[in-house]
Write a structure and sequence with these properties.
This protein is mostly beta strands and about 300 residues long. The chain contains 2 helices and 19 strands. Strands 10, 11, 13, 14, 15 and 17 form a 6-stranded mixed β-sheet that branches. Strands 6-5-9-7-8 form a 5-stranded mixed β-sheet, with no helix packed on it. A hairpin with a 2-residue loop joins strand 13 and strand 14. It is elongated and about 165 Å long. The chain starts with 8 loop residues before the first strand and ends in a 19-residue tail after the last strand.
Length: about 300
């Protein structure tokens, strides 16, 4: 009589250890090998290998060429991912060093906030949102510094450049007002040159703007300085006697329907001088008769 043997079959069970999917069990005949399944996935982790036993720390990869001789359970070994947190000071200094953070842990808020001239630091932002350093890191991120410009104003004042003469009310009332604020370095356009002002028998004339004692032209651009800009405008008073007026001449035809010919117009006197009020002016000489065509 001869013995009849039935070969044993053993179960290979897979434990994805939190990952997905969990491979189906395999029934393997004694002495044959299990089939290596597709790798599972686990958020924040990288699949390393399948291992046999319970010692995860010292585990080694299971060799799927090993004959199966009993029921076994293969467990997934995972390596936790590390992500880089990068800082962008957005023009400020210093730039904090990048941090390597394991999945699920948190980044460390830099102890020293960066600085930037003309701005205050508003915090570290991820996109449009202020970053919460208690949030778990789950991917590579870049935190960017957000800055708020320190606003500075522009003011004007007038002074009299004529000794002993105070500015009249209408000159003072023309003082420019700039209601805007500017960040340091931002361009500011100076006020336009105001028109002459008459007060009583005097005319007041604007001489120009100065900034910290340096002449600045009207309607020109100046960079905003820390603390703001203050422009000083100087006016001088001139008397009626100081005013100079021109003398001009004009010809008209006294013959109805007859325009003046070119040679008559060409003879128009020119006086290149100017005169103070009441100063004597000598009129032009009587021009000679002019012939044009038959006239």
């Amino acid at each position: 009589l001869t013995a009849k043997w039935n070969i044993n079959k053993y179960t290979v069970t897979f434990d994805s250890y939190g990952g997905t999917p969990v491979p189906p069990k395999q029934e393997v005949e004694y002495g044959l090998t299990a089939t290596k399944p597709d790798e599972p996935t686990l958020k924040g982790h990288t699949f390393a290998f399948w291992y046999l036993g319970e010692d995860e720390q010292n585990a080694t990869a299971y060799d799927f060429d090993t004959p199966v001789t009993g029921d076994i359970t293969l467990t997934a070994k995972w390596n936790i991912n590390k992500y880089t947190v990068t800082f962008d000071s957005n023009g400020g200094t210093p730039v904090p060093p990048a941090q390597e953070v394991e999945y699920g842990l948190t980044a460390t808020k830099p102890t020293t906030a960066p600085t930037k001239t003309g701005y205050t630091f508003d915090g570290w932002y991820l996109g449009d949102e202020k970053y919460n350093f208690s949030d778990a890191v789950e991917q590579n991120i870049t935190l960017r510094a957000k800055w708020e410009a320190i606003p500075y104003g522009v003011t004007y004042s007038y002074v009299s450049g004529t000794e002993g003469a105070d500015l009249p009310w209408n000159v003072i009332a023309s003082l420019p007002v700039n209601k805007y604020t500017y960040a340091e370095g931002e361009k500011v356009t100076t006020a336009m040159k105001p028109d002459d002002m008459v007060f009583g028998e005097y005319t007041w004339k604007f001489q120009g703007w100065t900034l910290n004692g340096t002449a600045v032209a009207p309607n020109t651009q100046v960079p905003m300085a820390k603390g703001g800009l203050h422009f000083v405008g100087t006016w001088i008073r001139t008397s009626a006697q100081d005013e100079k007026y021109p003398v001009t001449y004009e010809y008209v035809s006294g013959t109805e329907g007859a325009d003046l010919p070119w040679n008559v117009i060409d003879s128009l006197p020119v006086n290149e001088y100017t005169y103070a009020e009441s100063e004597k002016v000598t009129t032009a000489m009587k021009p000679d008769d002019m012939v044009f065509g038959e006239y």
